Amino acid sequence: MCFVLLFESNKEVVLPVENEQLLADYIDVVPEEVPHGLPPMRDIQHAIDFIPGAVIPNR
Questions:
Q1: Using alpha carbons only, what angle is made at residue 5 by residues 23 and 20, rounded to the nearest 5 degrees?
Q2: Which of 3, 18, 20, 35 has the highest CB neighbour count under 10 A?
Q3: Which residues fall within 8 angstroms of residue 6, CB to CB, at 6 or more apart?
Q4: Nearest-CA neighbor of 30 among 40, 38, 22?
Q5: What span, in angstroms and rounded, lies between the C-alpha atoms of 22 and 26?
Q6: What would the pLDDT profile of 10-47 be if each residue is shown by its tens digit?
């Protein structure tokens, strides 16, 4: 599960202790700055081809 929260504020945010520990556990995967746009296009683009009328599997 992944959540992204972007906001700008001059207010100081106080997190519950449980959230602070969670963020501390994953500090190496949370970037300091979030990019302001989409990543550049790559040479290889991936796509899934659907068959018309086929049932799409769900969980």
A1: 20
A2: 20
A3: 34
A4: 22
A5: 7
A6: 777 777 888 888 888 888 887 888 788 888 888 988 88
